[in-house]
Specification:
- The complex is a heterodimer.
- Chain A is α/β, with parallel strands linked by helices.
- Helix content of chain A is 38%, strand content 26%.
- Chain A has 10 helices and 10 strands.
- Chain A has helices spanning 42-49, 72-78, 95-101, 109-122, 124-128, 139-152, 169-184, 196-202, 220-225, 227-234; strands spanning 4-13, 16-26, 31-35, 57-62, 65-66, 80-83, 157-161, 188-193, 205-210, 213-219.
- Chain A has a 6-stranded mixed sheet with strand order 6-7-8-3-9-10, with helices on both faces. A 4-stranded antiparallel sheet of chain A has the order 2-1-4-5, covered by helices on one side.
- In chain A, helix 7 links the parallel strand 7 (157-161) and strand 8.
- In chain A, helix 3 packs parallel to helix 6 (139-152).
- Chain B contains 10 helices and 2 strands; from the N terminus they run H-H-H-H-E-E-H-H-H-H-H-H.
- Chain B is globular, with a radius of gyration of 19 Å.
- Classes of the chains: A alpha/beta, B mainly alpha.
Chain lengths: 239, 292
């Protein structure tokens, strides 16, 4: 049984179909990258898993159970955490308050403390700035805070929407290194990225989504060698 | 000098009532960007619930206050659930018109239930005169009202800044779309906000009714003033609502004392317009900056 299964998922925004029946599986412990161009349906996929948008057809199973009849906030207590596009931190709350809030569903005080010290050991910058307003952080620090917040929810599955957006290449490297570490310590990750190169480097498997359909899938190293992926993504890389 | 201090005490008392109403305006606006124009009428309903509890059940003051705050909080939650909830993502104008409708409904409901005449909440607090220094006198009830109001504001400030639910309220104000991703039920937070805002307005209603008579349309005038106080202070800001309320009350009281009661509203609002020209977002308000 996969940790996450999207079966024939169809989503539309009004009359426009955004996803035409996509099927994705994520096994426990995996890091899976979902690649695609702007508007291909990557964010829509994550937003449907988080139950932020209604689903037309198909099913989403988490840990073998359908989560279609749950609302967004109930998903978090199941163990799914979504780091949204643009990070979505709360700018007028302090770093600490941002982290505290995301432990809302965790009842065990010891676990909260443990998670917090783990986050601070991975992101020492956040500890240095814990009493600072989150809105005053740099883009990279805000991304760290967004990932830290997801860790505070004590999740089994972390969904990340373009964590590299707006970051310098150096910071992107740092963030991806941390994501790999988090994955290695047992958290399953589904990563949405336009930066195909970086995303495939740390991934076990990948999916390529085009116009709301899965165009390619396979082990990350295969996708990296694939002609179509190379042409579509690596050719366009600015570096 | 004595007269100035005497008037200052009056201004603080009136300002406290304004602030208790203005806080609800500001908090609700802060989290769902709704100017809840029914809020002045919630204040009025609070005053009448207090009136009924005092006249029919002859409860002691503390129970009247707490029970009224509780019942009015339920009313606030019900109004949000019934009238505003479905419109959360609708055009703001639809919400404002709905709020005006809810206000008119409450006015007429109370008028139907108790009649249009003015009433007096029987005095609940002793109005023994206390002699402070230099011939300044103040009645006990005034001091008590000011004291309880300030205490309520401090409790609110602590709640919003120190508790997890309070932090969630501020998070909703910051970015309502992301809050569910933290596992937080936004509807619950919105309900809590309406409950607190309505309970504070109810306390304001009872305090107002200790010094003035009450009638079903009293919420219109006071609601507007509290709303304006909230805007001048910086709508969305708790501290701003309190500051704006005391400024408005101060201007009103001193205009009546030294100029003319006819000029009260004219001068008060002229000065408020000037304040808004200087601080377009209100004294404590911030322009909404969103970092991408």
């Amino acid at each position: 049984m996969s940790l996450l299964e999207l079966n024939n998922l169809t989503v539309s925004y009004g009359p426009i179909k955004a996803l035409h029946g996509i099927t994705i599986r994520v096994e426990e412990g995996e890091l899976v990258s979902l690649l695609g161009a702007n508007g291909a349906g990557k964010s829509t996929t994550l937003r449907s898993i988080s139950r932020l948008i209604p689903i037309l057809e198909g099913d989403i199973l988490f840990n073998g159970k359908s989560i279609l009849n749950l609302t967004a906030y109930q998903i978090v207590s199941l163990g799914i955490s979504h780091v949204p596009e643009g990070r979505g931190i709360f700018p007028s709350l302090t770093v600490m308050e941002n982290l505290e809030l995301s432990s809302w569903t965790v009842k065990d005080k010891k676990k909260i403390k443990h998670n917090l010290s783990r986050i601070f050991s991975i992101f020492p910058r956040l500890e240095e700035r814990k009493n600072q307003l989150a809105g005053t952080l740099s883009g990279g620090e805000q991304q760290m805070l967004a990932v830290g917040r997801a860790m505070m929810t004590d999740c089994r599955l972390m969904l990340l929407d373009e964590p590299s957006m707006g970051l310098s290449p150096l910071l992107v490297k740092e963030v991806f290194k941390v994501l790999k570490e988090i994955n290695n310590s047992g958290t399953t990750i589904l990563l949405v990225e336009q930066n195909a190169n970086m995303a495939l480097k740390i991934a076990d498997r990948g999916y390529v989504i085009e116009n709301g359909r899965i165009a390619l899938e396979g082990p990350a190293e295969h996708l990296m060698q694939d002609k179509r992926v190379k042409e579509a993504y690596f050719g366009k890389e600015k570096k | 000098m004595e007269i100035i201090i005497q008037q200052l005490i009056n201004a603080v008392q009136l300002g406290a009532v304004y602030a208790l109403i203005a806080l609800g305006y500001s908090m609700v606006y802060g989290i769902i960007r709704l100017i809840n124009f029914a809020h002045g009428d919630i204040f009025m309903v609070g005053a009448f619930i207090g009136f009924l509890l005092a006249v029919k059940f002859k409860l002691p003051f503390v129970f009247i206050l707490l029970l009224t705050m509780f019942l009015t909080a339920l009313l606030g939650i019900a109004i949000e659930r019934i009238a505003y909830h479905k419109l959360r993502n609708a055009h703001r104008m639809s919400l404002v018109i709905t709020a005006l409708g809810v206000g008119t409904f409450l006015e007429n409901l109370v008028r139907l239930a108790v009649g249009p005449q003015t009433r007096q909440i029987p005095a609940q607090l002793s109005n023994n005169i206390l002699h402070l220094t230099n011939g300044i006198v103040v009645t006990e009830d005034k001091l008590l009202i000011i004291g309880i109001s300030i205490m309520l504001m401090i409790v609110l400030w602590l709640f919003v800044n120190k508790t997890l639910i309070g932090k969630a309220m501020r998070a909703v104000a910051d970015n309502i779309d992301v809050v569910p991703l933290m596992g937080i039920n936004v509807d619950m937070i919105v309900s809590v906000t309406f409950a607190i805002g309505s309970a504070l307005a109810a306390a304001g209603g009872i305090f107002f009714g200790q010094s003035y008579s009450i009638e079903p349309y009293m919420g219109i005038d006071l609601g507007w003033k509290a709303f304006i106080a909230a805007v001048v202070g910086g709508i969305g800001s708790i501290e701003g609502a309190v500051v704006g309320s005391f400024i408005l009350a101060g201007i009103e009281v001193f205009t009546v004392a030294y100029l003319s009661s006819n000029l009260k509203n004219g001068i008060a609002f002229a000065l408020l317009i000037i304040l808004l020209v200087i601080w377009p977002y209100g004294i404590m308000g911030k322009p909404s900056l969103k970092k991408v």
